[in-house]
Amino acid sequence: MNEEADRPLIWIGRADYGRLLRAMDRLAVQAPDVSAFLSCELERAIVRPQEDLPQTIVRMGSRVLFRRDDGQPSEWGELVYPDQPLKDGQITVASPLGVALLGLREGARMPCADADGTTRWLSVERVLPA
Q: Which residues contact 45 (CB under 8 A, 6 or more apart)?
């Protein structure tokens, strides 16, 4: 599998983009692997004004229904910034899962490495705007 070629297009709002760049810099010390993954995703992102993004894009604060690998049960999560205290059902963008979901459109699939390095596929089934 060629993970670079398998990554779908992602879209990020300008305001989120700026805040994510700052978060990436802070993460470089705490979680260098996540920071590097976020850096790669931000580099390839299509950045637009927040209001120009379709409602079906996973953005910060979105609630997203996703599935890990085919055949696994669907899960709901809300994408949040690393400086927010995590509550049940929230996914921080300071995690590989959060970075992988960022900017995806409903119906998109994205490869994502687990903590043990195993590559899994994430599928976005539904996005509820923030």
A: 10, 11, 12, 17, 103
Write out the two tokens for 99. 């970075």
Cβ proximity of 37 and 88 under 8 Å: no
pTM of the model: 0.91
Domain 8-128 grouped into CATH 3.10.50.30: yes
What pLDDT tens digit does each residue of the chain (130 aa) get?
A: 445 567 899 999 999 999 999 999 889 999 999 999 999 999 999 999 999 999 999 999 999 999 988 678 999 999 999 999 899 999 999 999 999 999 999 999 999 887 777 888 999 999 998 7
Please give the structure tokens belonging to residue 67: 């599935």
- Tell me 110's DSSP state: E
User: For residues 13 and 59, is the Cβ–Cβ distance under 8 A?
Assistant: yes
Q: Take residue 114 and report the two structure tokens written for it.
A: 């687990």
What is the greatest pairwise CA distance in the chain? Answer: 38
Cα radius of gyration rounded to whole Å, the chain: 13
CB 57 within 8 A of CB 126: no
